[in-house]
Amino acid sequence: MASDVNPFESLQEQIDDAAAYSDVDDDVLERFKRPERVLETTLSVELDDGSLGTFEAYRSQFNGDRGPYKGGIRYHPNVTRDEVKALSGWMAYKTAVVNIPYGGGKGGIALDPAEYSTTELERITRAYATELRPLVGPDEDVPAPDVNTGQREMNWIKGTYETLENTTAPGVVTGKAIESGGSQGRLEATGRSVTLAAREAFSYLGTGLEDATVAVQGYGNAGSIAAHLLEGEGARVVAVSDSSGAIYDEDGLDAGAAKDHKAETGSVAGYDDCEEYSNDELLTMDVDLLVPAALENAIDADLAEDVEADVIVEAANGPLTPDADDVLTDRDVYVLPDVLANAGGVTVSYFEWVQNRQRFYWSEERVNDELETVIVDAFDDLTDAFEERDLPNFRTAAYAVGLRRIVDAYEQSGN
Ligand code: GLU
Predict the structure, then answer these.
(1) Which ligand 1 atom sits nearest the alpha carbon of residue 346?
(2) Test site for ligand 1: of 349, 353, 355, 375, most ligand atoms within 8 A of the Cβ
(3) Of 40, 123, 139, 340, which one has the greatest count of Cβ atoms within 10 A?
(4) Nearest to 379 by CA among 367, 371, 389
(5) For each of the chain's 415 residues, which pLDDT tens digit applies?
């Protein structure tokens, strides 16, 4: 695990790699390599035992040239200012790659939510929402779920914002529960775009997903839903993992049953007498498709030398270090980058926000159809750039497409 690689430096390297193939002046490029502003705040919150807990919390607004800042809020002990800055930048390029009218943002609180009660988490979230109030709004900055947050936290943030602003504003956050203005299909959207991206990639490479073997690292929302939907495309999910380790069955697991097992026992380990392996062993298994769906820096250059998958589709944000990317490019392993592959989450967030503004709600079928159009179009734009400009890999192609769109919006606005 290459945990010492600074994700913000990785982001800047990825932008520089694309800029080398793009016609953007160096001084202008600087604007698109760093956040416009970062809120860093300490939350002081009373805990259940009466003591006072203090928590470092952040919100980074990376770029707003294409629309309101957009991106999730993460609860994790490893959250740092630089991680949040990187994640906000990845969002800015992601929204540009799938061409939805948003900029990029990201927030986080450095805590392990497993250590706190529901009432403590509610007070912490509402304290954070109070700090965010001057920054967020449906036309300013629109948070969403990320690692360890979901509908519950979004509903709390929405409620706090609406109370403080004396209004109703469901579009201030996305990823809400359906009854609070959420969208059909939002929960599944990240896993769905991973599956669509994999389907497009395998067809582009001249094979299909039918009978393709798949390993999934990380079995939370994105990983488990991608595994389930990939099965629906005829793929064989042979290995999945979570922080407790990996399980393997060469005949294929039942992705849904493995998820139920994790929900009941807390981990995938012990499911159906499968063979057990480490996470690093899963990442180097000889499969057709590898889906890293956990955290940043899962694959560094050393591990990349041992990767045996033919295609990697990134469900997590930033799971490969730039050095790992170089190794995999040299080894002709195709990597479908996060900024396209997991963009289903923010794309359906966009649909949710549109529905909130119109107070008119779509069927799940419509959401899924519109999502498919967005991801397939983005894939085509990426592969066109890859071929026409003879770019080294899909990530550089994605960043080249995204950078162009952000620079164009900035220059046209004349600001
Ligand atoms: N946290 C998700 C991401 O990294 C979703 C963001 C959103 O819906 O705004 O893309």
Answers:
(1) 8
(2) 349
(3) 340
(4) 371
(5) 445 899 999 999 999 999 999 999 999 999 999 999 999 999 999 999 999 999 999 999 999 999 999 999 999 999 999 999 999 999 999 999 999 999 999 999 999 999 999 999 999 999 999 999 999 999 999 999 999 999 999 999 999 999 999 999 999 999 999 999 999 999 999 999 999 999 999 999 999 999 999 999 999 999 999 999 999 999 999 999 999 999 999 999 999 999 999 999 999 999 988 999 999 999 999 999 999 999 999 999 999 999 999 999 999 999 999 999 999 999 999 999 999 999 999 999 999 999 999 999 999 999 999 999 999 999 999 999 999 999 999 999 999 999 999 999 999 987 6
Ramachandran assignment for 245, one of left (phi > 0), alpha (psi -120 to 50 degrees), beta (any other): left
- Find the 53 Cα to ligand 1 centroid distance in Å: 28
Entry pTM: 0.97
Does the C-beta of 344 come closer than 6 Å to ligand 1? Answer: no
Closest C-alpha among 325, 306, 304, 305 to residue 396: 325
Other C-beta atoms lying within 10 Å of the C-beta of residue 216: 34
Which atom of ligand 1 is nearest to 70's Cα? 9
Atom of ligand 1 nearest to the CA of 348: 8
Helix/strand/coil for 389: coil
Q: Which domains does the chain have, with CATH numbers?
A: 37-180 (3.40.50.10860), 189-341 (3.40.50.720)
